[in-house]
Structure formats: structure tokens, C-alpha cells
Amino acid sequence: MEDFHIASIVVSTIRNAPVLMFAALAGLFAERSGVVDIGLEGKILASAFVSAAVGYTTQNPWAGIAAGIAVSVALAMVQAFVSITQKGNQLVAGIAINIAMSGLTFVVAQYIFQQGGRTPDLGAARLSDVVLPGTVLLADIPFLGWFYGSVLGGHSPLVYLAFALLPLVHWVVYHSRFGLRLRACGENPHAADAAGVSVDKTRYLAMLVAGVLCSFSGAYLAIVQSGFFLRDMSAGAGYLALTALVFGNWRPLQTVLGCLMFGFFSAVQIQIEGVDLPLVGRIPGSLIQMIPYVVTVIVLAGLMAKSVAPKAVGKPFVKSR
């Protein structure tokens, strides 16, 4: 590929990754506490729709993001109630949220906006990119101008939030009292309970954090990337985020690296679509769109046996008497 293609792939990777990063870090909190969060996909769709709808109605992207947080947290609490309080099947609860939100967002969008299940274009309600000071002065300097203006700068505030969350999440999980309790509840909830830790409360707090983080993924899709809501626009991002979580062995840094890997392959997919490649020619679009999912299968097949999930994940906690 030519240099400008490589530059485009780097920038596109940075812009594609936050959707997965927010969702994967949300899943990390939930699963570290012992709750399987298969419902990431549904929460992404719900927050994307509500963020787009409220953002368009108010012409305020921050109001849309706040509304997205509210609906994602509400779904996370429903999921927590079924999984933690009622000791229900966590996989079934998550899948139910995914199926319900896939249909409900489309129906409500069609009822409100009458545009085939999508919202109108947000226009001015989209988040604007951050332009770093001195970008214009450095623009003509080879490499430095591009790196400063397009790699470090020129992104939505949510992109910077996604990358800023990495050190914060690492500190919370490994260096805070809440993180210690979180990991204890995911590894040995009975021992945590014996030490005076409320397992149910810790898991509820983890699901609350997961709901907030997952909402940013949906808001980013609608308010930053697309500028509107479209049915099933998450396109499996929640499942890819779970794959990144497995790839990262439920650790923040490795999980984010997995998200960047998927973001890279998505960027490559966009770059090679419709391009005549040497010795290969033009690859059909349907094959190109399969790239992230083929990578997912390869990652799961190669790493699933080596990944060590929290020992109590997916197991309802029943207090010993």
C-alpha cells in the first residue's frame, strides 16, 4: 500500500477502536465480578438509539450521551436483578436483552421518526473533533504535522476518553479497594463473603459501571461515527468486545490491545474495498466484510484454551449458612 493508505489505516484504527474499547472495559468489570455480560450488544444498540434520538431532538450531543447512559444503566440493572438477585441464567438474560433491543429500537425509531427504522441525520448535534493548539503551524511539516494533527489530534472527545480510561481502569481493578473486592467476588465469592464483602452489592456496582461504559460505545457509534441511528448498527461490536476480553485474558491493557487489533482489521477492510490488489485483483465486498469475524474465529480458536476466566464467572452466588 502507498504511504497515504498506511496513514489512513492508522487514523482509522484509532477511530474504530473506541466502540470496542468502551464495551470491552464494560465487560471486564462485569465479568471480573462474576457476571457474564453477553448483553453488551443490546446495551450498545439501546444507548445508540437513545443518544441519537435525544441528540437530534435537543440538538445537543451531550444530552444524547446522558440519555444513552441512563438507558444503558437501566438495562444493566435489569440484567443484574435477573442474574444476581434472582440467580437466573446469566447467558439467557444477556441474550434476551440483545434480542429485545434489536427489535425494540427499530420499532420505536420507525414509530417516532417514520424513516424506515432509523433516525434523521444529527447534523450539528454530532460531537465535533478536537483540534490541538498549533495544528495549523505544524501542518506542513512532514510526518510531524500528520502525527500531531491526525494521530494525536483531530478526534472526538470520546476517543480521548476511551484511551484515558485504560490507566484509570487498570488502577481501579488492581490498586483500589473496590478492585480488590471486585476480583475476589469473581474468583472466590464465598471467601469474599467470609471476609465481610457484600458479593451482591459489589456485583451490582460492577454492573452499574459496565452500564455507564457500554453507553459510551453506543453513543460513539451514533453521535460520532455515523451521525444517525440505523437498525442493528452495532454489527456484532458487543460480541467482538467479548472476544477482545478473552484475547486480553480479562486484563485491561491486553484487552485494549485486542480492541486495537480488531480496529486495525476493520480499517484494512475499509481501505482494500474496491481496490485492485497486486496478484489478487479486486476482492468481493462480501469477503472483505468477513475479515473482522474471521479474525474473531481465529482468535477464539487459538486463545480460548489458554485464557483463564474468573473462576466464579457465570455462577450465581448463594450465601453459605
Automatic annotation (TrEMBL):
InterPro entries: ABC_transp_permease. Keywords: Cell membrane, Membrane, Transmembrane, Transmembrane helix. Its main location: membrane. Pfam families: BPD_transp_2 (PF02653). The keyword Cytoplasm does not apply. It comes from the Bacteria. The chain crosses the membrane at residues 6-28, 62-84, 91-113, 157-174, 204-223, 229-248, 255-272, 287-305. The keyword Mitochondrion does not apply. It is found in: Cell membrane. It is a multi-pass membrane protein. CDD domains: TM_PBP1_transp_TpRbsC_like. This is ABC transporter permease.
